[in-house]
Every structure is written in C-alpha cells, then in structure tokens.
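Q:
My hope is that you can spare some time for a protein that puzzles me. I hope you can help me see how the letters and the tokens relate. Thank you; the sequence and its tokens follow:
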Amino acid sequence: MAVIEKRLDKAGKASYRVKVRVKGFAPESATFNLKTDAKNWATKIEADMKAGRHFGQSKRHTVKDVIDLYVSGPLQQLKSKKSVETRLKWWVGRVGEKRLADLMPEVIAQGRDALKSVPKMRGKGQRTDSDVNRTLAALSAACTYAVKELGWIERNPVDRVSKGREAKGRVRFLNDQERAAFLDACRASRNPHLYLAVILSLTTGGREAEVMGLRWPQIDLVRRTALLGDTKNGDTRVLPLAGEALKLLKDRSKVRTLDDDRLFPPRPKSKRPYAELREAFGRALEVAGITDFRWHDLRHTAASYLMMAGTSPLEISKILGHRSMAMVSRYSHLSPDRVLALGDVLAERMGVK
C-alpha cells in the first residue's frame, strides 16, 4: 500500500513524499516534485516487491551511508556532536561497509564486546560499561534516523542489544571542614578568577562551562539572576545570585573592561573561550589537603547541601537543570530526616500516628 503526503516549503513550493508498505518488506520512501512521479514510483516499487524483484533500501545502502548522512545532518544540532562523531567513527571502522540489511543485533553485540578491549578515548585502561553504552547509543541514534527520517530500515537493531550495567553516579562533596579550607586556599590564590568562579559554582550548582562562560549581559544584579540560554540540555535556565557571590560580582562590575563582556576572559592570544583555572584549582586543593575532588564535584556539593537542607528533588532538578529525576535521586540518602518527616506527615494524615 502506498501513502502520498503533500509538503510545502517556506516559499510555498509543493513536493510529494511517498511511502510504500508491503508485508515482508521494509517500508520504502522517496520524495518527488510531481505527484504523478510519486504515483508512478510507488506503483513500480509495489510491483517489484510482489514479483520478488525489489532489493530494498536496506540492501542498497551501507551503515556508513547512514552514519555519513546523520553526521552531516541531525548530529550538527547536538552539543555533544564531537564526542558522538568520534564514537560513530569507531562503528564505521567496525561495520561501516556492511549493508543495513546485514546489521543484525548479533553483529552489533559482537562490536559491543570487542569495544570493551579497545583503549579509552582519553587515558588508559579498559572501557567502563557506561562508556560502551554511550558508543551503542551513538549508533542507535543513527539507526533511529534511518528508520524515522530515511525509511531505509523498519526497526532499529540496536534496540535488541543488551546494555552493560552502569555504576551508580558519583557523589563527592565537600564537608564543612574541607569547604572552609578550600575556600581559604582559593581566596589566597594568585589567580584573580578562581575564588569568584568557585563561589559561583558552589552557590548556583552551575556546570563548569555554564559558570565560566558567563557574560555580563546575562547578569542582572538587581534581580540577582544569571540567565543561561545555551545549557547542556538546550533549556533556558536561571542561576540565583546570592551572598558573597553577588557581592563579588558587584565589585567586579565596577572594574570590568569594556572591550570584553566575559566574566572570566582568557589570557591574550589564548584560543580558549574563557580563563583556564584547572592549574590554580589543583593547587588550591593541594593547599587545602583535599584529594579525589574534581571541578564537577562543586556541582555535587551544591546539590548535596540542598538535599540535606530538605529541598525537594523536584526543586533541585529545576535549579541544576536536570531533565531526569534519576539524576537527583543519587543524593536522596543525604536527607534521612526529611524522609522521616514525610513519613510522620503521612501517618498523621492516615490517622495512625
């Protein structure tokens, strides 16, 4: 059976997308400028399918064909495009020349198992299940594109491949003693940006790139907010500015340069979009005697403090910009008193307290 859909572009010019479905074959689709051409193509494809003369798009195109189209198209809209493209290149080397019809779940599973022995993209050692799952997800995205947009295959073969069990998310945060020592070390640092950047990260829960990439037009010192319009997940979000962070921003606003609107401008001739603080950050940790701590753990610290203060997971997810509540659940063990209090509320409401 053939279905023809009329489409209009921005200029009002019509085109006709036709999809042919015959039992036992993957659906075939194509787009034509004339409806007559669409009908003729559909009639021929249906006849070839029923006569056994049709080999289908899945037998005419390779895995590399799909990945190339996906990389040049939808992938360009993702913030993680560099990482995803690197993972897709691995699949091209592994199964790129295979026809789509031959990309069976067992072939992908063999690639999954082989990937575990391939060195990590950064560093040495065996890849974790999390890293392998991300590489599977990259291939899955390309296959979904082949199903929904290209119509070259009927079903995503990656859906039938089991994924590794990932470890629970890391939760490392500064205790009161560590926080005090670390902030003292940052305050004493020779780097003029470190202390403000750390304070902003701790009091807003912002990601490193979000905080370091701030520009003065995003800052509203009256409303005490910083507007993020280009976050990791693409959503607009507001960071609250309070306490010492607000005071430091007000002080810096009085002496900022007029030819650069970045809060943390890089050094002259630097190719980085903002100041490099990793070395100063590491030295401050050493001075404070703190180990096993990364910049992203400042975000974990903010979330942990909010949870321990009785803030609801939903509110925390809004502040941190998490789309999934599962990302917040890792902190739930830090608020046992809140859980007990909610139990008392429920018991009282039931009349069994």
Observations:
- The chain has a mean pLDDT of 84.
- Residues 129-150 form the longest helix (22 residues).
- The chain has three domains: 2-54, 60-160, 176-344.
- DSSP finds 14 helices and six strands in the chain.
